[in-house]
Amino acid sequence: QVQLVESGGGLVQAGGSLRLSCVVSGRTFSSYFMGWLRQAPGKEREFVAGISVSGASQYYTDSVKGRFTISRDNAKNTVYLQMNSLKPEDTAVYFCAAARSLGTVTSPAYWGQGTQVTVSS
Hints:
It contains no helices and 11 strands. By secondary structure, the chain is an all-beta fold. A hairpin with a 6-residue loop joins strand 4 (33-39) and strand 5.
């Protein structure tokens, strides 16, 4: 069974930074496309960023391009999301996801429990 555990969320002022981490149990981490999704109160869950199995390709939603960076360390079974220049509209619960491809990351095989990110103005 694959389990995903996120950490690194918290309260930060606008313009600040946070780094989210997601540790994945199991031996198949390096075979999954990994992504970060988020869900704000009253809104649907949305794709934020994704990274290919090798880490060579990264994908971002337009609203975070240039501010967020996704990376992965297959030796540590960990995916990261570095978030800079945070805005109040980035406030949400952030979820780590393990999927077969970019096309299925919003309906992934496995989810984490989520970590709260709150950006104050």
